């Protein structure tokens, strides 16, 4: 049953951000109405079944739906007026450009404007170009002629750990007015004890972009270290791990594939936000360039290594297609594994490409690219392979015996591991057949 004192909340967009937020609020006895244009998602949600993998979400969603705290529909018709409207729709980049799309934000805002009543609070939670709250959402709401209170409260949870983080992470609140901030803070205080009020929506928008861009920059430097080590012929893993051992002033990340639904686009949104002000952010732009070109560089180096040993074409197995493996997710958005696959297929040196992912549904893997062979077992995927690529950090890959992998692969085959799963193994076992980023050319293992 709902708490009579709890507000009613409408959430527009039930993707990763919207559905986890809806469930988190409903678990606190808030009556939530979800709006989602995909009928399949509406049907699954109303059946208590999540449409993506997220730790704890299946049980939590089933519970709040069975208690009548969360229902979903494709439009705002036939749902009661609410005290809060939260916009959580996606903000992908325009195809072929690095410009963020605004049409989904505008469409969602028009839905809200047509349904809200005077005094409602509207919260933008999507990751957006700076100025979107006041420059895009506010004008649409103003057209309705209704009184409303507008805030920006960015989402900052980690996929795979969202339900837990929604209860512990500080919530950023940037209202257009003090009253707007008060109302937004009141709602999010039901989730967490820590509310961080900032001066305005633009500050809140910037915080989200800076959070993710800073991570992109950090990972890009690690990948640049790897490129330098490969050029010189030394082991980047050793340089980074041993260089910071007991030395707190250095904290270089390990190199790896850098993508996902946030890091692949948020730095570009930041760049687009400052461009109208005549500003170019050199470090941000360079970092994204380093991370985006990595699949092409590593695949070419790998193929060159293979060709130096035997003529192609080659049988290749790739494990880990989702954009990350820890925490577990089945999310393919922005996955750099897809770019690795594209480079392999475009090379003409790949006679067979098998893929495996423990989280992604077989039908979704089969839809990724043509001519992929989808396997349900990683060992079987690697059988007879000239090259095995480990492309994300799911725990299953570090739990597999590297000796077992070598035993089923072709004689003289190699493993290329973007995530250093086996780098602690004795060098005698790995030498000349196990390579990582920044340890391909020199192979000092």
Uncertain ranges:
none
* Average pLDDT taken over every residue: 95
> At the first level of CATH, what is the class of the largest domain?
Alpha Beta
Helix content: 40-55%
DSSP summary: helix tally: 18
Query: What shape does the CA trace take?
Result: globular
Major sheet strand order:
3-2-1-4-5-6-7-8
Task: Characterise the protein shown here.
The chain is of the alpha/beta class. The protein folds into two domains: 8-199, Rossmann fold, CATH 3.40.50.720; 211-436, 3-Layer(aba) Sandwich (Rossmann fold), CATH 3.40.50. The protein has helices at 16-26, 39-46, 57-66, 103-115, 132-143, 162-168, 178-188, 201-232, 236-243, 260-263, 266-274, 282-307, 336-347, 362-366, 378-382, 395-399, 402-408, 427-430, and strands at residues 8-12, 31-35, 70-73, 84-87, 120-124, 148-152, 171-175, 195-197, 314-319, 350-356, 372-374, 387-390, 414-417, 434-436. The protein has an eight-stranded mixed beta sheet, with helices on both faces. Strands 11-10-9-12-13-14 form a six-stranded parallel beta sheet. Helix 1 packs across helix 3. It is globular. The termini are far apart. The relative contact order is 0.09.
Keywords:
6-stranded parallel β-sheet, 445 residues, Rossmann fold, globular, single chain, alpha/beta, 8-stranded mixed β-sheet
Please write out the topology.
Elements lengths: L7 E5 L3 H11 L4 E5 L3 H8 L10 H10 L3 E4 L10 E4 L15 H13 L4 E5 L7 H12 L4 E5 L9 H7 L2 E5 L2 H11 L6 E3 L3 H32 L3 H8 L16 H4 L2 H9 L7 H26 L6 E6 L16 H12 L2 E7 L5 H5 L5 E3 L3 H5 L4 E4 L4 H5 L2 H7 L5 E4 L9 H4 L3 E3 L9
Parallel strand pairs: 1-2, 1-4, 2-3, 4-5, 5-6, 7-8, 9-10, 9-12, 10-11, 12-13, 13-14
Antiparallel strand pairs: 6-7
Helix pairs in contact: 1-3, 1-6, 4-5, 8-9, 8-11, 8-12, 12-13
């Amino acid at each position: 049953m709902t708490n009579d004192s709890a507000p009613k909340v409408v959430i527009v967009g039930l993707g990763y951000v919207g559905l986890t937020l809806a469930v988190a609020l409903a678990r606190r006895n808030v009556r939530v109405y979800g709006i989602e244009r995909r009928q399949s998602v509406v049907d699954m949600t109303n059946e208590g079944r999540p449409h993506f993998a997220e730790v704890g979400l299946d049980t939590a969603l089933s519970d709040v739906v069975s208690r009548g705290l969360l229902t979903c529909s494709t439009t705002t018709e036939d749902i009661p007026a609410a005290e809060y409207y939260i916009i959580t729709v996606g903000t992908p980049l325009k195809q072929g450009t690095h410009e963020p799309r605004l049409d989904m934000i505008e469409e969602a805002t028009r839905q809200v404007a047509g349904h809200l009543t005077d005094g409602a609070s509207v919260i933008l939670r999507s990751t957006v170009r700076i100025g979107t709250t006041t420059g895009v959402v506010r004008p649409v709401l103003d057209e309705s002629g209704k009184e409303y209170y507008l805030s920006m409260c960015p989402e900052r949870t980690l996929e795979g750990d969202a339900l837990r983080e929604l209860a512990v992470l500080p919530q950023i609140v940037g209202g257009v007015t003090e009253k707007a901030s008060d109302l937004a803070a009141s709602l999010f205080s039901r989730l967490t004890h820590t509310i961080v009020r900032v001066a305005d929506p633009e500050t809140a928008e910037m915080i989200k972009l800076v959070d993710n861009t800073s991570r992109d920059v950090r990972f890009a430097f690690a990948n640049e270290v790897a490129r330098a080590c490969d050029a010189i012929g030394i082991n980047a893993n050793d340089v980074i791990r041993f260089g910071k051992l007991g030395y707190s002033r250095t904290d270089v990340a390990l190199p790896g594939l850098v993508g996902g639904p946030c890091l692949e686009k948020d730095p570009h949104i930041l760049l687009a936000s400052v461009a109208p002000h005549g500003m170019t952010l050199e470090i941000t732009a360079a970092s994204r360039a380093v991370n985006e070109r990595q699949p092409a560089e590593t695949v070419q180096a790998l193929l060159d290594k293979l060709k130096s040993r035997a003529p192609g074409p080659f049988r290749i197995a790739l494990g880990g297609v989702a954009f990350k493996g820890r925490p577990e997710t089945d999310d393919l958005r922005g996955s750099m594994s897809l770019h690795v696959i594209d480079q392999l297929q475009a090379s003409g040196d790949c006679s067979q490409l098998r893929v495996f992912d423990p989280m992604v549904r077989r039908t979704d893997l089969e839809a990724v690219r043509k001519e992929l062979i989808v396997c349900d077992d990683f060992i079987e995927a690697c059988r007879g392979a000239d090259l095995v690529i480990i492309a994300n950090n799911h725990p299953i890959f570090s739990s597999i015996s590297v000796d077992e992998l070598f035993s089923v692969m072709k004689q003289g085959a190699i493993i290329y591991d973007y995530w250093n799963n086996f780098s602690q193994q004795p060098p005698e076992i790995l030498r000349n057949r196990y390579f990582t980023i920044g340890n391909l050319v020199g192979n000092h293992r």
